Structure formats: structure tokens, C-alpha cells
Amino acid sequence: xxxxxxxxxxxxxxxxxxxxxxxxxxxxxxxxxxxxxxxxxxxxxxxxxxxxxxxxxxxxxxxxxxxxxxxxxxxxxxxxxxxxxxxxxxxxxxxxxxxxxxxxxxxxx
Length: 109
Hints:
The protein is mostly helical and 109 residues long. The protein has helices spanning 4-13, 27-34, 65-78, 85-99; strands spanning 44-45, 59-60. A two-stranded antiparallel ribbon has the order 1-2.
């Protein structure tokens, strides 16, 4: 994700870690085995606690701003952490845009 707010959230509210899925016999391969992730699979997003337990279901096959920011919000709720207002607004807006937002103008007299 390259959106500045997604990056900001990942860097300030989480500890982002990249695990390569195309290696053998190293620490990355051990992490894949721990989470039963296949090698050479598409990327996934996992949000885990300090013990490595999933806080929310993994995010796979939907790497939109709506899905990733929504996962961030859900994981903060699961961890009983405060959700910054800007993140909750961003996630809500992205989810609304993904669903399709319509607008209407009402005249007042």
C-alpha cells in the first residue's frame, strides 16, 4: 500500500514486518510454516499480538485501502487499543467509496 495514511498507520500504530514467501530453510520459511502459509502464495496481511496470535482473520486477495484500513481498525478494537479518529474516518470513507457512494442535493426554503 502506498497511500500516505495507510503508511502512517502501519508505521505509527503497528510494527510492520515483511516475510518473504519464496525462500527455504531460513527464518521467513519458519514464519510461513508457523502460520500455515504456502510458499509462493500471494501476499497476505496479518495482524498479530506480541505472542504472534492473530488478532483478526488474515487479509488476503483484497489489498484495497478499504480492506487494509478496515483490518487495522478491527485489530485495534480486538487489542483494546484506542483508534485514532483520522484512521477510523479514513477507513469509513474508503469502505463507502468501495460500496459506491451517491449524493443528493436538497433545497431548503
